[in-house]
């Protein structure tokens, strides 16, 4: 008579194999979650940095567009050839710059004593713009130019002997106190003739 021998087949996995498989799965899952979190954080930082750069550029664009008009007159040919005998215009104040204030005038009508006068000034973390038609307004007055998203840390405005104006803005986002501050530098060239600082 023949005896049948049954081979024992293992069904499933051992506890040790299960624990090793779970451990490897957790390591791979943890690495994937860490990668996704890192990408998300980096993306957030990039978005905040871009937003801050846009805010600083927008503010500097406003100042630049106005400052380029500095010293302009309504009739630029009226004083040609007059030399030192040319009438003094109220626009001759432009550009008068101090560390945190820029006064400009343009489209001046010497006979009428009128023009467009702008004063840009930095106070309490904000850039202010004041306007008038007869003389440059005082520094520290006017409407807020920068958005509520931008807090200015420092502003430097200086007139250079070559007739240009240097503008340096440093700020951070108000919505994120941990955001790093950025600095934007711009050289502004008024369209009119060279003026001394």
From TrEMBL:
Pfam families: N_methyl (PF07963). The chain crosses the membrane at residues 12-37. The keyword Membrane applies. Keywords: Membrane, Transmembrane, Transmembrane helix. PROSITE patterns: PROKAR_NTER_METHYL. It comes from the Bacteria. InterPro entries: N_methyl_site. This is PilW family protein. It comes from Lysobacter yangpyeongensis. The lineage of its organism: Bacteria, Pseudomonadati, Pseudomonadota, Gammaproteobacteria, Lysobacterales.
